[in-house]
Amino acid sequence: MVETRKVGQFEINPIGVGCMGFSHGYGGRPDEASAIAALNHAIDIGYDFLDTAAAYGMGANERLVGKALRHRRDEFTLASKCALGATREGGRAIDGTPEGIALTLDQSLDRLGVDHIDLYYLHRLDPNVPIEESIGALARGVEAGKIRSIGVSEISSDLLRRAHATHPIAAIQTEYSLWTRNPEIALLDTCRELGVTFVSFSPVGRGFLAGAVDATTTYEQGDMRGPMPRFNAPNLAANLVLLDRFRAVASDQGCTIAQLAIAWVLARDPAIVTIPGTTNAAHMEENMRAHDVTLSDARLAELDALINQTTVSGSRYTAAMQSMVSTEQFA
């Protein structure tokens, strides 16, 4: 039996499903029927924490999750996000005003076909709006019964403290994996201090730590990895050398590289949960079996030394992408 972990008032399987890829961010998206089948398969095999957002596919992802699973609403904890939207020109717009958040919340509820959302995140900080005002708007959503718990995403430790002082924050969601260690600067410690659950997205490095990228990979239009420095020359070649060494460790451990990457994240702290994204039912099954991987202290130390912020080549984001997040960066 899988040991659960807590997010706000909910006890969940600590491996959830990031649903973004069904509608946004990557190429090779499945058709609607296949997507609906995959999402139902996730629930069938024990996933009970699903993550979407208003921004994914300009609302298409929320509509998909709602269409696929609203008839099974009592079988999973539902998370979504507000304040970040896609423009029709392909850019991104942030609206963290109380009015914008209230509107997006109602739109999320409508698209999902539900009367409340279990965990609703402030997807990005609006630089023109104090975080206290944005969190205040979400708190009013809680008071109205539209939100059960409030989360934040991609913000710094100091901003998390300010948000938590305004209204209790159940969770913060930020990228965290062997090759993205930024939360170790301060955020993980702050989460422990405040009792905030840390939700790790991209635990397999946007597919890199699952073997989805090699020297011949080309990125379809709209694949967010296309401009990211660590996925491109000259950085990619150096990172693939690390991946080969990572494969050898996984072989010795007796698991797949994706399972090893997920197990590492879960081993970092008992208050961490993670949401590997996939649209593939077989990968969902593979990811779930990361629960069976037990890492010794020696193995954890080996992995820490192999892939970290000093051994990975290339930055996490382009300058433009980085400007839209408020997380700490290594010097």
Account of the protein in words:
There is one protein chain. With 331 residues, this protein is an alpha/beta fold. It has a single domain (10-322), classed as Alpha-Beta Barrel (TIM Barrel). The chain has an eight-stranded parallel β-sheet. The protein has helices at residues 32-44, 60-69, 98-112, 131-143, 157-166, 187-194, 235-253, 257-267, 281-288, 297-306, 319-322, and strands spanning 5-7, 10-12, 17-18, 49-51, 77-82, 84-86, 92-94, 117-122, 147-153, 171-175, 197-201, 272-275.
Residues in β-strands, percent: 15-25%
Number of helices: 11
Helix content: 25-40%
The number of strands is: 12
Strand order of the largest sheet: 3-4-5-8-9-10-11-12
CATH third-tier fold name:
TIM Barrel
Q: State the end-to-end distance.
A: 42 Å
Pfam families: Aldo_ket_red (PF00248)
Organism: Sphingomonas montanisoli
Protein name: Aldo/keto reductase
InterPro entries: AKR (IPR020471), Aldo-Keto_reductase (IPR050791), NAD(P)_OxRdtase_dom_sf (IPR036812), NADP_OxRdtase_dom (IPR023210)
